[in-house]
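From the methods appendix. Each design record in this collection lists the tokenized structure first, followed by the designed amino acid sequence. Records were kept in a plain field format so they could be parsed without special tools. The example shown here is representative of the layout used throughout.

RECORD:
FOLD TOKENS (93 positions):
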């Protein structure tokens, strides 16, 4: 793995750990596991998309996501992925 790949995977690990710890602190009594899982995965996916959109200041690299035609999937039309999460993912908090 190159330096970027290593740092990217380490950063994803930090995002995962942060989301697990937040979920644990918010849900000491598990009444509805389904709600907890939707909330936790919603938060996790939002954090990853925020990273992909370039708004995670603790990650020094910018990420470009290309499709199989080598086109940037954030352009044409321009999109901020983390702004679209609420429209498409379930959240039960």
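DESIGN:
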């Amino acid at each position: 793995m190159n330096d970027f790949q290593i740092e990217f995977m380490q950063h994803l690990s930090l995002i995962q750990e942060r989301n697990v710890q937040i979920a644990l602190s918010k849900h000491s009594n598990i009444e509805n596991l389904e709600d907890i899982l939707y909330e936790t995965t919603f938060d996790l996916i939002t954090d990853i998309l925020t990273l992909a959109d370039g708004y995670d200041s603790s990650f020094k690299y910018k990420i470009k996501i290309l499709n199989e035609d080598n086109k940037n999937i954030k352009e044409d039309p321009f999109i901020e992925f983390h702004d679209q999460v609420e429209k498409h993912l379930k959240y039960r908090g």
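APPENDIX NOTE: The radius of gyration is 15 Å.
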